[in-house]
Amino acid sequence: MQIIVKKLLLFLMTAAFVNLSLAVPVQEDAFTDFSGTWKLNPEKSDSMPGRGRRGGGGGGGESNQSREMTMVISQEDNVLSILREGGPQGGPMEMVLTPGKGPQEVSTPGGAATVEAWWEGRELVVEQSQERQTPRGSMTIEQQQTWSLSEDGNTLIQRVKLKTPRGDFDMNLVFDRQ
C-alpha cells in the first residue's frame, strides 16, 4: 500500500511541476536585433552577378564597387532603418522595413521597387520586386533575402535568391560587424 501511495504522490508532483512549467512564459526577444554597422566580407561571400565590364578582353566579371558594401542598420522593435552604401547598384540606398506590414514601395538606385518583409522565427525574410526599362524593353528582377545572425552576433548572413531575365542565382553575402 505504501508503494502505491508513493507512486501516486510522485505522479501528482510531476503533473503539478509540468503544469507550472507550461504556465510560466519564457522571456525571449521578439525580434532578432540587426542594429549596427555591417561591412561586406568579400572573402566569405559569394560573387555577385552583374555590374561587370563588357567588351574587349574584359569579360563579365564583377566590379570592385560591387564587392564594397556597408550597411548601417537602426532597429527599434519591429522597424528597421537601413542605409546601404555600395554594392552592385552603386550609390546610397535608404529604406525603412516594417516586417509583417505588407508590401511597401521604396526607392532604389535602380528605380522604384516593391518590398515586403516578415519574420520566420529568428530570421528576417525580405522580398523585393523591381520593374526596369531597358533599350530591349521592360524586365523584372526579383530577389528574396533571408537574414540571420551568427551566435555571437558579429556576423550577418544574407542568403539571396535572385531571379533575372539572364537566369536565377543563389548566393550568400557575409557581413562583419564594425
Number of strands: 10
Structural class: mainly beta
Strand ordering within the main sheet: 4-3-2-1-10-9-8-7-6-5
Radius of gyration: 24 Å
Instruction: Determine the number of helices (DSSP H or I, runs of at least 4 residues).
Output: 1
The CATH architecture category equals Beta Barrel
Return the string of H and E elements: HEEEEEEEEEE
Instruction: Provide the CATH superfamily.
Output: Calycin beta-barrel core domain
The CATH class turns out to be Mainly Beta
Strand content: over 45%
> Biggest sheet, open or closed, and with what strands and sense?
10 strands, antiparallel
Low-confidence stretches: 16-28, 51-65
Instruction: Give average pLDDT, whole number.
Output: 81
Q: How many domains comprise the coordinates?
A: 1
Structure characterization notes:
With about 180 residues, the chain is mainly β. It has one domain (about 35-50, about 60-175): Calycin beta-barrel core domain (Lipocalin, Beta Barrel). Helices cover about 10% and strands about 50% of the residues. The chain is built from 1 helix and 10 strands. The protein has one helix at about 1-25; strands at about 35-40, 70-75, 80-85, 95, 105-110, 110-120, 125-135, 135-150, 155-165, 165-175. It has a 10-stranded antiparallel sheet with strand order 4-3-2-1-10-9-8-7-6-5, with no helix packed on it. The longest helix has 22 residues, at about 1-25. The chain starts with a helix and ends with a strand.
